[in-house]
Amino acid sequence: MRIKHGRFPRPAALATLALVASIAFARDAAADAIVGQPAPAFTLTGTDGKQHALADYQGKYVVLEWINHDCPFVKKHYGSGNMQKLQKKWTEQGVVWLSVNSSAPGKQGNYPPEKANALTQEKSAMPTALLLDPDGTVGKAYGAKTTPHMYVIDPQGKLVYAGGIDDKPSTEAADIPSSRNHVDHALTEALAGQPVSVATTTPYGCAVKY
């Protein structure tokens, strides 16, 4: 690319500015959610109409799952029953499972509480609560980038896992049996009093619709 008069052509300049802005946003969004550090505090309204604060669940393990039922990557895990199986397994062991929807009004995946509840029932999902984050405040505080994007918080409020649900970044349900489920491994190790061996991974899925 040739530079004339010390100035980039307009398309390149715009692309560069957009890239810088996206990098800055990613850094800011993830700044408060660091594995090994206290998880960012929050209070959100659930589709049950109740307020749910992270502090309410102190003393328990908490899973945060960013969700958008219109995303094909989310459909992979719900259509196969994989996510519901995880929810059932761990909530039966006392883990709190909070599904978080950060889709903004007018964006894909944003639904009123009654529709969101209907989808939860239709898919036989088993979260402790489905929380609504339409302004994206909590999603950005955690640096949630994809649906799904998964986090595990220990009873002391420390983040012990952040990243993808597994190691097969595809939309194919056939890939699930041969994948390493990072969330399942993290909870298994943590509840056994062991350090989480894989504490940070790269999430995959649809971009959160902020």
Features:
210 residues; alpha+beta; Glutaredoxin; two-stranded antiparallel sheet; 6 helices; 31% helix
Q: What features would you describe in this structure?
A:
This protein is an alpha+beta fold. The protein has 2 domains: 1-30; 33-207, Glutaredoxin (3-Layer(aba) Sandwich). It is 31% helix and 17% strand. The chain has helices at residues 10-30, 72-79, 82-91, 113-122, 137-142, 182-191, and strands spanning 43-46, 51-53, 62-66, 96-101, 129-132, 146-147, 150-153, 159-163, 206-207. The strands form 2 sheets. A 7-stranded mixed sheet has the order 2-1-5-4-3-7-8. The longest helix is centred in the first third of the chain and has 21 residues, at 10-30. Residues 1-31 have low confidence and may be disordered.
Biggest sheet strand line-up: 2-1-5-4-3-7-8
Question: In the residues, how many domains can be counted?
Answer: 2
Q: Based on helices, strands and strand pairing, what is the structural class? A: alpha+beta
Question: Globular, elongated, flat, extended or rod-shaped: what is the shape?
Answer: globular
N/C terminus separation: 34 Å
Kindly identify the CATH topology of the largest domain: Glutaredoxin
Our estimate of the beta-strand percent is 15-25%
Helix segment tally: 6
Radius of gyration (Å): 18 Å
Which CATH class of the largest domain is shown? Alpha Beta
Biggest beta sheet summary: 7 strands, mixed
